[in-house]
Amino acid sequence: MQEKEKSAGKTAKAKESKKSWFQGLKAEFNKIVWTDRETLMKQSVVVIVITVILGVIISVMDAGILECINLLIK
């Protein structure tokens, strides 16, 4: 009988712990400051442009290095 009470106590503590955790999560989530739509769009455009530019630079460098290696091999 005591084992049932112990397991029931553990289950109640686990439920309380989960409830407390979710309350803490909700409280932290409410502290988040979301950026406005205009700022988000500007930053997204900058990230996309820089990604494309770096992709082109890496492609050009890769092609140049490949040509140099081909010249050395021949």
UniProtKB/TrEMBL annotation:
**Do you know which InterPro entries this protein is assigned to?**
SecE_bac, SecE_sf, Translocase_SecE/Sec61-g
- GO BP field: intracellular protein transport; protein secretion; protein targeting
The alphabetized UniProt keywords are: Membrane, Protein transport, Translocation, Transmembrane, Transmembrane helix, Transport
> What Gene3D superfamilies is this protein classified in?
Preprotein translocase secy subunit
Query: Which GO terms of the cellular component aspect does the record hold?
Result: membrane
Keyword check for Transmembrane, yes or no.
yes
As one GO molecular function, the record gives: protein transmembrane transporter activity
Q: Which domain of life is it from?
A: Bacteria
UniProt subcellular location: Membrane
* UniProt protein name: Preprotein translocase subunit SecE
* Gene that encodes the chain: secE
